[in-house]
Amino acid sequence: MKLAVGLRETSDEYLRFLTQLGVPYVKFDQWKELMSEPGARGVMKPEALRKLQETLKPYEIQTYVFLLPQGPNTQYWHARFGRSPEADLEIENVCETLRVCGDYGVPVVEWTWSIPDVFGRIGAAPVARGGATVPRFDYDLIKDKRPPYAVDMSAEQMWENIIYFMERIVPVAEQAGVQLAMHHHDPPTAVLAGEARILSNFAGMKRMIEEVDSPVNGFNICQGTLSEQAGVDVLAVIRYFGERGKINHCHFRNVKGSVPVYDEAFIDDGDVDMYEAMKVYKAVGYRHCFIPDHCPGMAGDPQRRATVAYAVGYIRALLHVVGEL
Amino acid sequence: MKVGDQIGHVTEEDCQFLAQLGVHHVRITSWDTTMSEPHACGVLKADEVKKLQKMLKPYQIETYMFLLPQGRDTQYWHARFGDHPLRDQEIDNVCETLKVCGDCGISVVEWTWSIPDVFGRIPGPNTAGRGGAQVSRFNYDLIKDKRPEYAVDMGPEEMWDNIIYFMERICPVAEQAGVLLAMHPHDPPTEWLAGEARILNSFEGMKRMIEEVDSPVNGFNICQGTIAEQAGTDVLALIRYFGERDKINMVHFRNVKGTVPVFDESFIDDGNVDMYEAMKVYKEVGYRHVFVPDHCPRLAGDSTHRASRAYAIAYIRALLHVVGEL
Questions:
Q1: B299: pLDDT confidence band, cut at 50, 70 and 90?
Q2: What is the span of the domain harbouring residue B307?
Q3: ipTM
Q4: Domain count of chain B?
Q5: pTM to 2 decimals?
């Protein structure tokens, strides 16, 4: 079980900061530098990845998780809308990217599947502990809204499209020696901006694993997102997918509340007992990364160093307590 | 068991930050405003304490501990020299200060007893702290023939006489006032430092102190880093010994690498002691006061020291949660 953070920058000061926190692994998504075409499109450039790895090397930091480009008009954007020649080209770009990751020893590739994606959060409000600022979600406020590019898409269409995508990328990932980590739908509402959110509950996540049965087909268990799912038993879900070796990444974050209304929170101030969660990951033999995510904005911390250091300190302590660090 | 922090003068933003960390118990000093006379002398002023408490109140932060002035020519400086003309007056000032603390609801008063005090540390090489973090180092060989100009030779029995005289006066007052005393053992815990016999540098010395003045309020700040610096000390056994006897009134929950004669400060999770094992001992012995971080190595780019404190406090909070205290 490994401690990681999302790589925000590559300055010497920031990398020293990470090393001093004792963080040896990163999730990276520097698409501007890494992708062959502007707008986070094309394929990952091997030379650019190599350069990034060399930058990190003196700090003994390894590239562990790559997040495939996400957002309107990025790498595999059109594939989300259904089959088309453009979609097929994009999927081929994803496949090539997986091969590059494999060649350069990146163990995990994270991906998402949505058109509205992470839509609907309200801007930062000082509602976390001590007035720390966090985004909130309130479904009623946005249920009739949608971004301009959103389309109506039913559950069956969503399943068809995602299975088509997975059936192509999964064998390539197997060949390339990378694990796939799908970030399930956040916010996990039933529908969002016209889209049926098929990966918003345990049943959907279970179906995804069964539709394309492969040792590399797994999840980024975004624990916060999971906790946002109304009626979910978070620990049971972790246990279910963990026992089957389907957890390839973990956003170790917490929230207060669940759909339709929830707030981000400090890692130790949400609905889930993170120690109990850590024990489950340990019990099921999880062996990849934990990263902090959505750390609340703290007073006098514009660079977000204190809030990240807080989350890292907490995760580190739990990893130590379960005998992993 | 509670997580806390040590503060000086604070802004609203500092208080907000503490509340966001989930810190609600602090040790205060701010001697330039809280003491009645310049240079951290005289008596603690109740109205200044109350002013600070008023500022902390909206954030639900409690002034749990007060550190008596420490350093050359401060409040009870001359008492450390023994039979000195200013000794008794200074001890009276300490006694009055203890009463003020009691009246203001401060639970624990920390104190130190040394003339050279925390002498001899140097900035460490940048390979010492994890990832080149700036930590301080102590290397006895580099300073063993050095001393600050005010240092005097003082053997162990003289040290014991002087500290017992002091304690015999302040303990009854502390008992009356309803405050607990937390003596910070000698740091660095060498045998001698700048001519002074470091009587509180070992388990034996600490045990004797408790026995010489047997009082329910007479206890320690277990500065765990200092204890870990003691060559040959079993840190967990020491915590257990004093904890079982309810002699731990404060904890500096910090770690170090190495022991006398050479040691470096370290990150809380990167030193000699397994802090989880330590936390379990505190829990077992029923420790009920505060853990504060101390000497946090400064992280790169952390000019306000906030990230460094946040890291330590998160670690402490996690351990408190794991043992069922948070």
A1: very high
A2: 2-322
A3: 0.96
A4: 1
A5: 0.97
